Amino acid sequence: MRKVTFGCANSLDNYIAREDGSFDWIMHCEEANQIMKDFWSRIDTMIMGRKTWEVAQQYAPKSKKKLPHGDLKTYVFSRTLKPGTHDGFTFLDSDPGEFVGELKQRQGKDIVIMSGGSLARPLLEAEVIDEVGFNIHPIILGSGVPLFYKMDRQIDLERIDVQPFENGCVYVLYRVKK
Hints:
By secondary structure, the chain is of the alpha/beta class. The protein has one domain: Dihydrofolate Reductase, subunit A, CATH 3.40.430.10. It is about 20% helix and about 35% strand. The protein has 4 helices and 11 strands, in the order ββαβαβββαβαββββ. The longest helix has 11 residues, at about 30-40.
C-alpha cells in the first residue's frame, strides 16, 4: 500500500502563512533541501487544496503554470472550481478521505499532501495519512493561516525522526498511530 505524507513549513505558533497567504518568513537551507530531494524521489502523486494550488500558481514560473510538477499526478480538491482535468491538474469536489483511501490502493509510488489544515483535517480523520512532517521555523507569527483546524478527535503520533538545522529550524517526522 502506498504511503501518504502530510507536511509543510510552519511557525512555532503553528501558522503556515501570514494572513495574506504570504510565506516570506520561511528560512531556506541546504539541510531542508536535501530532505526534500530524498522525499520527492519517492513520490508520484500530489494532493492539494484549492487555496494551496492558487498560491502555487502565483509563484510558479510561467513555463510550469500549465504543467504540474514534472511527472506527478496532481489532484486539487475544491468546493468552488469545476471538477475535471485542466492544464494537467485534476480538480475534484468529492470526499477527500474516500478518494485518497482508494488512491492508496492503486499501484504507484507514495503520495504527498501539499495543503493546509482545512484539507489535512478530513484526511487525518479518515485515517488515510500515514506520516506528518514539519519544518518548524524559529519564528512566532502571532496570526495567519493555521496549520490545523478543530478536529472531531485526537490524532496520536509516534516520532520517527527529528533533525535540528544550522539556521535554527527543526525538522520533525511522525508516524500516525492507527
